[in-house]
Automatic annotation (TrEMBL):
Superkingdom of the organism of origin: Bacteria
Similarity field: Belongs to the glutathione peroxidase family.
Pfam hit, one: GSHPx
Positions annotated as active site in the UniProt record: 35
The protein, known as: Glutathione peroxidase
GO annotation (BP), single: cellular response to oxidative stress
GO terms, molecular function: peroxidase activity
Residue ranges crossing the lipid bilayer per the database entry: none
Organism encoding this protein: Undibacterium fentianense
InterPro entries named among the record's database cross-references: Glutathione_peroxidase (IPR000889), GPX_AS (IPR029759), GPX_CS (IPR029760), Thioredoxin-like_sf (IPR036249)
Keywords: Oxidoreductase, Peroxidase
Gene3D superfamilies in UniProt: Glutaredoxin
């Protein structure tokens, strides 16, 4: 099993098998439009543009579970992200990342990359999971980890080098 064995609905409601990203390095992020970390969209988009030709993508999953910081519907989220940040990486429909309604992808990610002390719960918006070309979870990053600080890990994976797991959330 891998992260690319799941399916998710895009921000426009179309089902998308994540196997379409097989062969790419992915940074999977739970996002929110009204969060103190929302400006990370700038750096996420910059990384996506810098590395997409090399086989990298960012997959954004809006979530309203933390401080109700993603209250809009898909159209509102997409419009906000496009206007304010010029996002071009894939955005998905709003999901749950914790609790009984947790999306199966995030269950998988949390199981394969727990946080500090083995905790599985996601603590806040903009928790990031780095996934290799085969869909294996390589590392989990805390919301406070800036996308720029992940750049070297992404470059290593794009160069087909393994990086050692590290807990940072």
């Amino acid at each position: 099993m891998s992260a690319y064995d799941f399916e998710a609905s895009t921000i426009t409601g179309r089902g998308l098998p994540l196997r379409e990203f097989l062969g790419q390095v992915s940074l999977i992020v739970n996002t929110a439009s009204a969060c103190g970390f929302t400006d990370q969209y700038h750096d996420l988009e910059a990384m996506y543009r810098d590395f997409r030709a090399s086989g990298f993508t960012v997959l954004g999953f809006p979530c309203n579970q933390f401080g109700a910081q993603e209250p809009g519907d898909g159209d509102q989220i997409a419009t906000f992200c496009q206007r304010k940040f010029g996002l071009s990486f894939p955005l998905f429909d709003k999901i749950h990342v914790n609790g009984k309604q947790t999306h199966p992808l995030f269950q998988y990610l949390k199981t394969h990359a727990p946080g500090i002390l083995g905790t599985k719960a996601i603590k806040w918006n903009f928790t990031k999971f780095l996934v290799d070309q085969d869909g294996h979870v390589v590392r989990r990053y805390a919301p406070t980890t800036r996308p720029e600080d992940i750049r070297s890990d992404i470059q290593q994976l794009l160069n087909k080098n393994r990086i050692s797991p590290q807990l940072s959330n």
